[in-house]
Structure formats: structure tokens, C-alpha cells
Design brief:
Blueprint lengths: L9 E6 L5 E5 L5 E4 L4 E6 L5 E7 L2 E6 L4 E5 L12 E6 L2 E6 L12 E3 L2 E5 L1 H5 L6 H22 L14 E6 L8 E6 L1
Parallel strand pairs: 3-7, 4-8
Antiparallel strand pairs: 1-2, 1-4, 5-6, 5-10, 6-7, 8-9, 9-11, 12-13
């Protein structure tokens, strides 16, 4: 685990598919980082080392408490699979994933402050290295719900003789994106 708790964290740019380090920045300094592919930006420090975040177009701008600013160009750019880059923090308490609101929507032309929601995670959960993706897991849950619905509907098919449909309608939700999805799709069956 890459652990550092100072106010000058190191940063790794990781391949989102493999989790391998593409680029390592050992000194915190003002810089512009061009993300040429969908990546995971890992700040080796606590999320509390950040003063605030901004979004301008597809760029994420991170203002650190030590006074430095880093612009991650193309952070919110959607790849062919509809995925954007991800930001994580890794410290002695674990891995923390910054989930940004409206990440898959067009960003503002002028920099605007944004506030992420933090979620504990693992690097493998973001790279697919831990087996099931979120979409696969939710699909499995939906399938189990569908099977249960068929069983319940079959048990209720004896009829009441009143000509009314007493079937059960199931509604389930699944994420519209593979990782950290912003939107939910809704489907009703029954």
C-alpha cells in the first residue's frame, strides 16, 4: 500500500485496466497533467490534504492545502466505454474514492467548485482486478430478484376467480455506468 500522510503527497497515474503505474510524481508542485487515456489518479495521502476541487470542461483542478494546484486535463473525458478517469486517495486508513457529481455530463466553460462524495474502496474494485464489476454484481442481484418474482407469480396464479390480475410487479434499478455511475436506469417487470 502506498502510504503517505504529509501535506506534500506523491501522486501516481495508474492504468485503469491493469492498475499499473504509468507515471509517478514524487514532489508536489503546481503542474498540468495531461491524461492521454482513462486513468486512475492516486494521491498517496489523506483526502484531508485537499483544500478544494474545481471542474472546468473535462479538467479536474485540485487545490491542495499546501498551496499547490494540479490540473488533470481530460479527467472527465468519456472513453469509448463511457468511462472517465477516477480519483483515489491512499493513506494508512485505506483507499478512498472521490465520486464527483455529474461526472459524465459536459463540464462548465469557466472553473466551478465541485464537491465529491468519498467512499472507501480497493484499487482492485476500480480496475476490475477483483472479479465482478459493480454492473455484473447488480445484474446478478436483478436476476435473482427476477427468479424470485417468477416463483411468487407462479404461486399466486391459482386465481381468485374475480377476473382481476393479482400478479406482482417488480421494479429494480441498476447503474448505467460500470464504475461509480451517475445515472440509474429503471426497469419494471411483471
Amino acid at each position: 500500500m502506498a502510504v503517505q500522510n504529509s501535506l506534500s503527497p506523491t501522486v501516481d497515474i495508474l492504468n485503469q485496466d491493469t492498475g499499473k503505474v504509468i507515471t509517478h510524481y514524487s514532489e508536489n508542485a503546481d503542474r498540468v497533467v495531461n491524461l492521454s487515456q482513462t486513468s486512475i489518479v492516486r494521491i498517496n495521502a489523506s483526502p484531508e490534504t485537499v483544500n478544494f476541487y474545481e471542474r472546468q470542461g473535462n479538467d479536474l483542478i485540485v487545490h491542495m492545502k499546501d498551496g499547490t494546484t494540479v490540473r488533470y486535463q481530460n479527467f472527465f473525458h468519456l472513453d469509448a466505454e463511457g468511462q472517465h478517469s477516477e480519483l483515489i486517495f491512499e493513506d494508512d486508513k485505506g483507499v478512498h474514492h472521490a465520486l464527483f457529481p455529474f461526472a459524465s455530463e459536459a463540464g462548465p466553460a469557466v472553473a466551478e467548485a465541485i464537491t465529491p462524495t468519498m467512499a472507501d474502496t480497493t484499487l482492485g474494485a476500480l480496475t476490475g482486478a477483483e472479479g465482478l464489476t459493480t454492473l455484473q454484481a447488480l445484474g446478478g442481484i436483478a436476476a435473482i430478484g427476477g427468479i424470485a418474482g417468477v416463483a411468487i407469480a407462479a404461486s399466486n396464479s391459482g386465481g381468485t376467480g374475480d377476473g382481476e390480475d393479482h400478479g406482482i410487479r417488480f421494479v429494480y434499478l441498476w447503474r448505467s455506468e460500470r464504475r461509480g455511475g451517475d445515472g440509474l436506469a429503471r426497469h419494471a417487470s411483471g
